[in-house]
Amino acid sequence: EVWSTEVTDEDLKNAVEDEFGVKYSKDWKRLLKAPHGLKDEYSIRKGVKVIGNDAFQGCGFLTNIDLPDSLTSIGRNAFWGCDSLTSINIPNSVTIIGNGAFGGCRFLTSINIPNSVTTIGICAFISCSSLTNINIPNSVTTIGNSAFMKCESLTYITIPSSVVDMI
Known about the structure:
By secondary structure, the chain is mostly beta strands. The protein has one helix at 9-13, and strands at residues 16-17, 23-24, 30-33, 39-43, 50-51, 61-66, 73-74, 87-89, 96-97, 110-112, 119-120, 133-135, 142-143, 156-158, 165-166.
């Protein structure tokens, strides 16, 4: 079953909120939107399949995010501009890291990309200026254009031969 990362006004209107003001779909399978004031650490509910487009965009005080093992997709610009994030551990269930997913996360120093990921979107890590190294697993077949652009601290990257499409 495919779960959409697209978040509509209708989705937001029918959303349910947790105690932190984070909006989810009624079935708790899709995280739709987090309030900009969200700070420190946040654990996404178990059972969530997708993080919607722009969900955490601009949550500049979020330092740590715990992603559930049920997660399969990280939407477009999901964590764009989350300046305080320093590391993220992507679970082994994720197959897609969306366009701009971690763009502008200036203090992100490390990221774990598991063997389940097949696609790294366009500008996925653009302007992650503190990212020092990244290991791309053999499962990845597509890396989007400018995925690591403006990652000035990046000193090591391994692109496996499995990558057949760099868009």
